[in-house]
User: Fold this.
Amino acid sequence: MGSKVGLWAIPVVWAIFPTMHVSHGIGMLQGLVKYTLSPKPPVIESLDPPRPPTAAAHEAGLRLEALLLEVFGSSAEDPPRKLRQRRDQS
Assistant:
C-alpha cells in the first residue's frame, strides 16, 4: 500500500484497521445485548393502506415512460448501445 500511494498511507491504514474492527465489535455486542434482553421485535398490528399517486407523480411517471420509450424503443435491443448511438447523434 505504501509503495503505491506513498509512505503517508501506512499510518493511516494502521489507524483505520483497528478502528473499523473495534466499531464492528461494539455494534455486534450492542446487538447481542439488545436482542438477548428483548428477543422479539415489536409486532405491527396493521399497515396503513398505500396512498394513491398524486396527479403530479402520475404525470412525471408518464413523462419518464415516454422518455424511456424514445431512448430504448419498445424492442429488446441493447440499451447501452442505444444510449451510445443517441449520444453520438447529438
Observations:
- The mean pLDDT is 81.
- The CA atoms of residues 68 and 74 lie 9 Å apart.
- The helical segments are 2-5, 9-37, 55-72, 79-89.
- The chain has four helices and no strands.
